[in-house]
Amino acid sequence: MPTVDLKIEQLVLDSDNPRITHAAGQQEAFQKVVKDQKMKLVRLAESIVEHGLSPIERLMVLEVSAKPKRYIALEGNRRVATLKLLANPAAMTGLDMPDSMQRSMERLAAIFDVSKIEPISAYEVGAREEGKYWIELRHNGEDEGRGVVGWKPIVAARFRKREPAIQALDLVLEHGGFNEEETEAIRSKFSLTTLRRVVEDKTALALLGLTVKDNQLRTNIPGAELMKPLRKVVRDIAAKAVNSRTFNKSEDIVKYVRGFGKSDSADATKKIAERPVEGISKAEFTAKTPKPAKPRPKPAVDWPYVVPKGCSLTVTDNRIGEIYKELQTLKLSDARNAIAVLLRVFLELSVDHFLEDNGIDLHHSADPKSGKKPWKSLDKKLAETVDLLIKVGVPKAHFAAVTRSVSDKSSPMHMDLFHRYVHDRFQTPVTTDLAAAWNNAQPLFEKIWP
Asked: By the number of CB atoms within 10 A of the CB, which of 16, 166, 184, 358 ranks highest?
């Protein structure tokens, strides 16, 4: 198959591309590509501006005009659309696209260097049918091995084995004590981009007890100490409690790491000889740590329900009582999604009931302009509930776990994660997290429903 070197101006969009069906002209073709791809075009533009076009995926073009020379891309229509917008941002005029997308494309167009792209090497065919087999092979998935066999995210990262982020992730997956369910969730949809931002920030890395030398992740603290913050980072990323947008700036990442509790922070005083994390022995991660003087009671491991055996609440409200009875019958292994929703509802309704019983308004003061009284957040209502119980003699420490749980973005009790359980089809509650959430909240439930 012959090759041809082209300029961007010689490329036009394929108005019969399968992604967009038929378009009456170039403007309509552009609009259909934008509507179909949205922010994916921005991501592609970022890649092109930073790295250029992939040398292992050439365009496949068909000449449609001899004078002037014009070619449609039978394979590479998205790339052609992106290149033309980068080379001529005025082409966005008249296109219906989100403001954020247009701003991003204009920003990238301002730094786009066309000399690093042109000439564009492409395969030229004499007719559509000539390229049909190869295009189908490219887009029909694995096709029993004939097509492109895709890599899962973690497998793809293995290709970059030496990068520090994958070294950190491998360490946590091997020694972090995740159960099979959690490990599989991480392997299938973990955001390495987010982890890279943490690992590439020198200040955050030092707070985690790590350094990078010659692209090798190293530490001078024991493995058991190192695992505390690393495990939290991986777990938060897997639960989508943090993401690349959360870590938009260095100070955001540092603030996140500095906010770790004692149980999730490494003891920097326990220094030993520095060595690569890949060389840490398994024994370092199995070292026993001192048990707290008064550990929280944990649900029996052989008890299948979210409500622990022996927990007895006297729920006097009919509606809330029905929810409690349903929670008592739901098995952690069979009804994770239902439990996640009901548990969050049971907590908030219980707090609402307690406050109203004690004459506390569930609304904020009226807005002076609109006159509306906005609802209080669960954090606010929980704080008021705890204050009332402390005033009648209950120690503040009694409620530390549930208060922390509601503010912890990786907890099923946190509103952000709760919303994702309801609206994100990829977010699945983890049974151990649900059991821990009830365990944290039970001391409060026992005071509200004695």
From this structure: 166
Closest to 219 in 3D by CA, of 186, 260, 267, 177: 267
The total domain count for the chain is 3
pLDDT at residue 228 tops 90: yes
Q: Nearest to residue 323, comparing CAs of 313, 333, 309?
A: 313
* 301 belongs to a structural domain: no
User: What is the rounded distance in angstroms from the CA atom of residue 278 to the CA atom of residue 167?
Assistant: 7
pLDDT of residue 299: 46
How far is 44 from 78, CA to CA, in rounded Å? 8
Judging by DSSP bridges, how do beta strands 70-75 and 11-12 pair with one another?
Answer: parallel
385 and 280 co-located in one domain: no
Backbone angles phi, psi at 219, to 5 degrees: -150, 155
Rounded to the nearest 5 percent, the helix, strand and coil shares of the chain are: 55, 10, 40
Give the whole-angstrom CA distance, residue 377 versus residue 227.
34
Mean pLDDT of 156-181: 76
397-418 pLDDT, tens digit each = 777 777 776 666 666 566 666 6
